[in-house]
Amino acid sequence: MKLAIVLFSLLALSECLHKVPLIKGKTARMILKEKGLWEDFRKKYPYNPMVKFDPRFAVSAESLTNDADLEYYGVISIGTPPQSFTVMFDSGSSNLWVPSTYCNSQACTNHNTFNPQDSSTFQSTSQSVSVQYGTGSMTGFLGYDTVQVGGITISNQIFGLSESEGSYMYYLVPDGILGLAFPSISSSSATPVFDNMMSQGLVSEDLFSVYLSSDSESGSFVLFGGIDSSYYTGNIYWIPLSAETYWEINMDSVTINGTVVGCSGGCQAIVDTGTSHIIGPTSDIDNINQWVGATVDQNGDGIVSCSNVQSMPDVTFTLNGYTFTIPGSSYVTESSDGCTTGFTGSGSTEFWILGDVFIREFYVIFNRGNNSVGLAVAA
Question: CATH classification of 18-210, choosing from 1.10.357.10, 2.30.30.100, 3.60.130.10, 2.40.70.10?
């Protein structure tokens, strides 16, 4: 009888763990380079990584930024019968939105669009939604429908349906965005997807975890409701949040060979799956690039010799007293036209964004139960 109870408990637990595979595919930068459009595009639409976190850029809403190096996305479905979409799972924003059949932008011509008339469970609202990008905005309206994410069926999920989108979205593979940050930054006070998962009792624990593979198109995932211990080694180090908006934490310093090269005296950092690079104040980032032997070009890219990558120094981030180290082989990206570092300057803004360059080295747990971020060395 006890064995039956244990087996039933394990089955119930496993049913509340839902893994969404993430595809590691082409970035907008890669696609634009293949078409010979990248240099003109980056001049016309300069990358501003801080737009996403700066309320001055918002249009009565949260703001998002154009990051041409994002490469991870997964599949969800909306409606009855379900309509499928690829989305970026973004811990730096809180809204779910996808293109709609009402969208008249070029960006919607090569992406899946949601047709409300084809869903028997769709409920429209009179609320508008507007999200500002570094290269334009997404505008549309809000509706409710059934959303399926990794085997989880969420009823009455509010989401945005785009009617217009910024031009750069045409070159992104994902159709839309699924935000995983807090309700406090949600546009139009729309309840985020994970909050509905929790309130509807669809996850066994109030947390989700992320593993980003660097070696192949497959292997990456977002796991809702639990932790998969086979994807990390050693201990999980828990870091309390300093704010319940983004996944924001206290960072003590950034060091190379024991010397402080950034975040001197402490600073704030946001762990963000929706940003590809490690972003920091330009003066600190320039210092880091100099220390690792990179030359910063006119576009702000840190250029290094591909033959030097293995000898480049580790960069260590100290968070809440714990040290997390990134080797040169992880913070340098090699492409057909050379090697660049994954460090990008943000201007004079003091806080940092720990994006995918950082996250790929660790198994990351976003814990809403105790408002903390857990980090363990990725297996």
Answer: 2.40.70.10
